[in-house]
Amino acid sequence: MKLVAAILAAGLALAAVAYGRALSYPLLHDDRTLVASEWVAKRADLAGALKTDYWHGTRHEGSNLYRPLTIASIAWNAQAFGSKEAFRAVNVGLHLLAALALFWLLAGFSRDRFAAASAAALFAVHPLGSEAVLWIVGRAEVQAALGVLVAIRLALDHEAKPSAWRLAGSALAFFLALLSKDSAVAAVVLIPAAWWALTQRRHPRMFLAHGAALAVYLALRGAAVGFSGREFPFVDNPLVAVDPLTRAVNAIVLLGRYAALAAWPSNLTIERGFDEIAVAPLASWVLPAAIAIVASWVGAVLVASRRQRRDLAVLVFAAGAAFGVTSNVFFPIGTIFAERVAYLPLAFACGLAGAGLAAIPRRAIAIALLGAACAAGAARAWVRAGDYRDLATLTEATVASSPRSVKALFNVGRTRLRTGRANQAIEPLERAVAILPDYPRAWATLAEAYEVNGQPEKAREARQRAGVAPSDEP
Question: Which of 342, 401, 403, 457 is the most buried (most CB within 10 A)?
Answer without folding.
Answer: 342
